[in-house]
Structures are given as C-alpha cells and as structure tokens.
Amino acid sequence: MTDWHDTFSFVAPATVTFGPGAIAKLPELVSGLGTRAIVISDPGIAKAGILERIFALLNDAGITMEPYTQVEPNPSIETVHAAHDLFRRTRSAFVLGVGGGSAMDVAKVVAVLAAHGGTVLDYEGIGKVPGPGVPCVAIPTTAGTGSEVTVFSVITDRNRKFKMTVGSPHIVPQVALCDPALTLSMPQPLTAATGMDALTHAIECYVNTVHNPIAKTLALEAMRLIGRSLRTAYASGGDLHARTRMLLASTMAAMAFTRTRLGNVHAMSHPLGAHFDIPHGIANAVLLPYVMAWNMIACTDTYPHIAEALGERVAGLAPRAAAEAAVEAVRRLSRDVQIPERLRDLGVTREAIPRLTEDAMKSGNVLVNPRATSAPDIAALFETAY
Predict the structure, then answer these.
(1) In 123-263, which residue ranges form alpha helices assigned H by DSSP?
(2) DSSP for 10-42?
(3) Whole-angstrom Cα distance, residue 343 to residue 21?
(4) DSSP string covering 322-358, please?
(5) CA-to-CA dists, residue 30 to 153, 176, 286, 373, angstroms
(6) Pairing of strands 94-99, 136-140
(7) In the Cβ-directed half-sphere of 87, how many Cα atoms lie within 13 Å?
(8) Which residues are 163's β-sheet partners?
(9) Residue environment code for 177-195, b if the CB has 16+ CB neighbours within 10 A, otherwise e
C-alpha cells in the first residue's frame, strides 16, 4: 500500500537557473522580454549594492530599469499599488523582484495587475487570476521563502489586519535566478529567520494530508540540507558552500509545498504578521516546535524520517521516541540560531488570541494539517506558544 494519494499531479512551471555567479546570466535570461522594466526591492537590498550590479548587467544589454525599493516586511496592498503605478508610468514590459519573499511577492502581483488591471483584492483567494501576467523575474537574496517558484503571494490588508493570499499557477515567475553569492551579506537574524522558514515549509509539506511522493522527496532533501548547513551559515555567513546548500534547500522546499500547501504553523503565523508585524520566518520558527508536538499523534510514521534528516540517530528507537527526536531536533536548531522561544517575547498579547484564532481558521492550510484542527485547538496552541 502506498502512503500517498494514488493519483496526483505535479507542475513546476518556473525555469530555475541556480549556482554561484548565476547572476551573470541575467541578460540572456531576460532577452526578448522587453527593453523597459521595473525592479522591485527593499531598502536593505538597495543599500547592499546588489541592485547596482543588476542595473549594470541590464544596462549593458540595452534594458532601461526603474527601481521601486520601498517594499516593507509583510508587504501591504498599498505597496503593491504604488509599484504597479510605477510600472504603468514607465511603460515597462516586465518586472523583476529582487530580495526576500516580500519583494518577490509584490513583483508577482504587480505582474498580474499590469496584465489584467483591477486591485489586489480582485485576486484574493485561489484561482482568481484569469491568465498569465506580464513577464516576471525573481532573484532571491535570502534563503527561506522560495517565492521565486511558488504559486502564492501573501499581501497584508492593513484595513482588515489580515494577510491575504493570491494563489494561481499564473503568478509563478517565468525566470527564477538563484545565485547563492547574493545571500552572503544576510545578517545573522535574517539567516536564522529565513532558514527556519524554509525548514517549516519542508516539514509541513512532508506531513500534511495532501503530500505526494515528488513533493515529499524534495522536502526531505531540503530538511537534510538545512540540518547540515543552517548552523554554519548562521555562524559563518561568508561560507559559500553553506549558503549554496541553504538556498537550494529553500528553493526545493518551496517547489514541494507550492503543490501541497502547508499546515497549522502557516495558518497561525500569518495573523501574527498582520496584527503584530512579526517577520514571517520568526513567527514560523517560534510556532513550529509547538505545532509539531501537538501534531505528533498523527505523525509517528513521518516524524522519524524528519529526525533522521536533521541528523538524529533513530535506529532502534520506538516510533514514539523517534518522533519525539524530530521535535527536539527542531527545538535545538531553533535555539542554536537564537530564535525566541515564546510569542510573548515578540510582543504578542494574550488578549489578541481570539482574533488571531479567528483569522488562522480562515486559512486553507488548516484543512490539510495532519491532525484535524478546530478553532479551540488553534486557540490552545496560541496559548501554549504564548
């Protein structure tokens, strides 16, 4: 008997170019997309000098670029519309998203608006995008979100204090250019947050109820890479080998979860970002051990594989003990990279738990969590993590 659905589909529409120095291939990868474009990024990337190299490469190829560098963590609807306005005013032909998940998520939605008009709210949900957007190029500078290959963009509606999702195969970037050398300048806190984000993607994809063998294989290898490399990337940020493995893990985990969705960690982390502006990777990292422990009774067959991937010796252990080793391995990794252990350490208030629970239950990720979940369950998990 198989441990996946007998019939499944797996589509990977993004073309991924990966490797140290891959940024040099940018001109040939965008050849034919047009001669004007906007580059969507954030202030940190602008200061790091990465955009200067991208502009030089594209200027040499005869492409005129306009920067939009005001993307914030947990990017808002207003930011998307401002970037789209720049796209229209400059009569651009394509979009580049350079940075972490926030910049790439904004770029993906701008590409939709440029092709189909309307506002971000017109595309909220799954399957609302009627067709391809204008060409979109994604260049990650962090190793965590994997937005360069996913069918999702997450945008914050400030009026509702709600992180909404635009989900469609039509928003996957046509070009994903992954150069690990661009991640060398990540500071330690960002390395930790994005690395734990990628690990959360891999674990939730691996154990949820709609997994498939291709996604599980990608997710398990991503866990192995993170288990071997995150501590080194955190402690020695200039280690290109560790950075390469982490970026590969991020992209592989994202290719996996974009076909299967995730679980309770992501359902709960999005409201934390919307209400308290907590960075997504940090919210995931804090919640992950608590949700894993709660899910354990549904995961005694999968957690031992996670433990092994993270370097734990589980041979000869009873299934429960091997499963517990997975949770402890995640806790230990999280502590080693200085992730806070409690939501209260991040400024979350206990009084907010009812609203956080209400918003978490709106997520489709709850429906695929390995353990059936009710609103009181989510509230109890928030309380435990608090």
Answers:
(1) 188-207, 213-235, 240-257
(2) ----PEEEESTTGGGGHHHHHTTS-SEEEEE--
(3) 39
(4) HHHHHHHHHHHHHHHTT--S-GGGGT--GGGHHHHHH
(5) 22, 11, 39, 45
(6) parallel
(7) 28
(8) 156
(9) bbbbbbbbbbeeebbbbbb
Helical (H) or strand (E) element with 171: none
Which of 178, 77, 78 has the alpha carbon at shortest distance from 123?
77
* Segment holding 270, helix H or strand E: helix 264-276
Spatial contact of 263 and 369, defined as CB atoms under 8 Å apart: yes
Q: Which two tokens stand for residue 22?
A: 């891959």
0.70 surpassed by pTM: yes
Locate the domains of the chain by residue range. 15-183, 188-385
Give 125: exposed, middle or buried? Use CB within 10 Å, 0-12, 13-18, 19+. middle
Q: In the chain, how long is the greatest CA-to-CA distance?
A: 65
Instruction: Evaluate whether 97 touches 173 at the Cβ level (below 8 Å).
Output: yes
Q: Kindly state the DSSP code that residue 67 receives in the 8-state scheme.
A: E
The predicted-structure confidence for 139-187, as pLDDT tens digits, reads as follows 999 999 899 999 999 999 999 888 889 999 999 999 999 999 999 989 9
Three-class SS of residue 311? coil
Report pLDDT digits (tens) over 249-297.
Answer: 999 999 998 888 899 999 999 999 889 989 999 999 999 999 999 999 9
DSSP symbols for 76-93: BHHHHHHHHHHHHHTT-S
Q: Tell me the fold of 188-385.
A: Dehydroquinate synthase-like, alpha domain (1.20.1090)
Burial 362-372 (b: 16+ CB within 10 A, else e): ebebbebbbbe
What is the spatial distance between Cα 353 and Cα 20, in angstroms, rounded to a whole number?
A: 44
Domain 15-183 has CATH 3.40.50.720: no
One fold for both 15-183 and 188-385? no
